[in-house]
Design goal:
This protein is an alpha+beta fold. The chain is built from four helices and six strands, in the order H-H-E-E-H-E-E-E-E-H. The chain is globular, with a radius of gyration of 15 Å.
C-alpha cells in the first residue's frame, strides 16, 4: 500500500462526498470505501457495524443530515500517513467543511479525522475512524 494509494482513496472519497451532499448519493460507491466491518469512535461513543444494507442506510441518513444543516463543500487540506505494517496505516485527514448559512456568510470549519486503513487485495479500505466532537463544534458555530 503506497502513499499515493491512500491519497487517491481520500480524493475519491472527497468527490463522493461532494456528489452526496448534492443529493446524488450512490450508496454502493459509498460503501466501497469501507472494509467488510467498520469501527468508529467519537466522544458520543464507539460504533461497530457490518458493511451491509443497514450501513448503507446509515450513510444515506448521514448525508441527508449534512444537506439539512447546509453543508455545501468538504475539501481535504492535507493527509498525513503513518504506516503500521505492510497492509495497514493510520491516515490523519485534515478537512475543511463549508456551510451555507442562508442570509449570513458561509461558515468554514476545519477538523481532522484519523482513519484506519487496510489494504484489501489491491485496494485500500477504511476499517475505522476516530473523530472529535462534531456536534459540539457545529453548535459552537450555530450550524445546528
Amino acid at each position: 500500500m503506497t502513499k499515493e494509494d491512500i491519497q487517491e482513496l481520500f480524493q475519491q472519497y472527497q468527490e463522493f462526498f461532494h456528489n452526496a451532499i448534492k443529493g446524488e448519493v450512490d450508496m454502493e460507491q459509498g460503501a466501497s470505501f469501507y472494509a467488510t466491518a467498520v469501527i468508529g469512535a467519537a466522544p458520543a461513543g464507539v460504533m461497530v457495524a457490518q458493511n451491509d444494507k443497514q450501513f448503507r442506510l446509515f450513510l444515506q441518513q448521514g448525508f441527508k443530515a449534512y444537506r439539512k444543516m447546509g453543508t455545501k463543500d468538504l475539501r481535504i487540506r492535507g493527509i498525513e500517513i503513518t504506516p503500521i505494517d505492510e497492509l495497514h496505516c493510520l491516515a490523519r485527514v485534515s478537512w475543511t467543511a463549508v456551510y451555507d448559512r442562508g442570509d449570513y456568510p458561509d461558515t468554514s470549519i476545519d477538523f481532522d479525522v484519523h482513519y484506519l486503513v487496510q489494504q484489501v487485495q489491491e485496494t485500500p479500505k477504511i476499517f475505522g475512524w476516530v473523530s472529535g466532537d462534531e456536534q459540539a463544534v457545529l453548535k459552537e458555530h450555530d450550524i445546528i
